[in-house]
């Protein structure tokens, strides 16, 4: 065994020994301070009954049934297969008992858990967590909160969450014992919370759900919504989230919030903001998940579609740079682009699905429209770089491949002796061709010549239709802000200067997303007008206010037979890769979607004196 492996084994053994000592020390403890300090591991170890009479065989099936019901690991640390929130009938089949025997075992376990002082204190903690979260919370969220509070020796997210979920399941079952006490007249033990999940189609397996807190006498006010009302509202939100997740295009935050706001709210003071409402909606759905910017997407979203939406395959192209010197993109960086936008891809509630690497990833990227390949740089780092061979192979097949063929068709002229004029001639040919075809183009122009370039592009023979994105954005953002008494426009301006990630900045983000949601249909309408390319100007707001995905959707529409879409990027050096507010502009490198518009073209040096 190597030194590193021996060290890892010793660390693992030490962790297990600490966990075992924790359990033994707390086995007979009654001090609330000790019980409140038990880790998730120690608490989970108390859930399965001990062998009766010192003979493990006497209650082996009972112990196994409880372990499987709570989905606890076996003696070798392996988690059971199946649903994260197990059904009793599945336990009966796995253990080989009748369906009627499992409820008897569960009833006995509830009695034992009800008498466990440590679980009683954990119940108080769960009630506190629910109250802090607006009285309804996804089970996974509560599991993560317990892990953060109590700690665990496990490192893997799947194992950590599985143990925390076993505790939550035990508390939910224990609370059913409280209901029995209440029905028998013991008002000291009311049922305070209840588990529920999305309304499932007949015959389908249930998904992991939520826990709702009931009204607490003497604590909650008279206008507090009841538990049944909260549950019904959450389920209605979940149904709407499922409809949004089924849409062909990713709904914007504005669309999501408008749809969820149409659900009838329960009477009383709910106290949820827009983000919390969206979080509850996806938790109460069968297949929906939520992006950080409040877009709803299906958990089983295909990788190709995720790559297109996130434009994860965008790699900066530097003409003339040798392949091994290209900056490229690491596989981990590409994965992060996808998972940052879609953090809950996959149907497993404990961990998101793993994204592919190697040739499988390259194939998915090509299907998404990114002609990339894996190559090793001079520093021995394997990265994704543009596959220049693909650009040549597709030349002439699409209108977007003009650059490769144009270079071959360009005949020498009297102006070719001047490199600047020759570059202007090439840009003019590509612009002329693009104006008559579908597709998306990024036009980089000198910063000081931006206004002149817009006037030239709007004239003959291009007939481009300029639209100022900054003007549209400010107009719609003012409209969003004016719809409520707070915040004021002055507050919005202060939030714009706030630290990224701060609460004011997050609140601003919700409103800017609403504004973009209103801008998108307006741009689609303008794009559909058959009268020349739609030229987007003053475009830095796309990068500053995170709307490059909107640009991606419009670009895809233009590629699929719509009118040409041109994005004007004004920068000090138009020959550098296009960027907006520090972010790379998404375009398909393999199809020559980037046109450099040099200073000589703007000043018309490529035209004959009489032109």
Give the termini separation: 81 Å
Mean pLDDT: 81
Largest sheet: 5 strands, parallel
In spatial order, strands of the major sheet run 9-10-11-8-14
Rg from alpha-carbon coordinates: 30 Å
**Strand percent estimate:** 5-15%
CATH topology of the largest domain: Rossmann fold
CATH architecture tag of the largest domain: 3-Layer(aba) Sandwich
Helix content: 40-55%
The domain tally reads 4
Which secondary-structure class do the elements indicate?
A: alpha/beta
Shape: elongated
| Uncertain spans | 9-14, 390-416
CATH class of the largest domain: Alpha Beta
Instruction: Give me the number of helical elements.
Output: 25
Number of strands: 14
Write a structural description:
The chain is 49% helix and 9% strand. Mean pLDDT is 81; it is low at 9-14 and 390-416. It is elongated, with a radius of gyration of 30 Å. It has helices at 3-26, 32-36, 40-44, 60-70, 88-95, 101-115, 117-132, 139-150, 157-183, 227-245, 253-261, 274-283, 303-310, 331-341, 358-367, 388-393, 402-409, 419-435, 450-458, 469-482, 489-496, 503-528, 540-544, 548-559, 599-602; strands spanning 136-138, 193-196, 210-213, 288-290, 296-298, 372-376, 382-386, 440-446, 465-468, 534-537, 565-571, 579-580, 583-584, 594-596. With 611 residues, the chain is an alpha/beta fold. The relative contact order is 0.07. The longest helix has 27 residues, at 157-183. The protein has a 5-stranded parallel beta sheet with strand order 9-10-11-8-14. A 3-stranded antiparallel beta sheet has the order 1-3-2. It has a two-stranded antiparallel ribbon with strand order 4-5. It folds into 4 domains: 25-199 and 208-214, no CATH class; 215-297, no CATH class; 299-386, no CATH class; 399-602, Rossmann fold (3-Layer(aba) Sandwich), CATH 3.40.50. A hairpin with a 5-residue loop joins strand 4 and strand 5. It contains 25 helices and 14 strands.
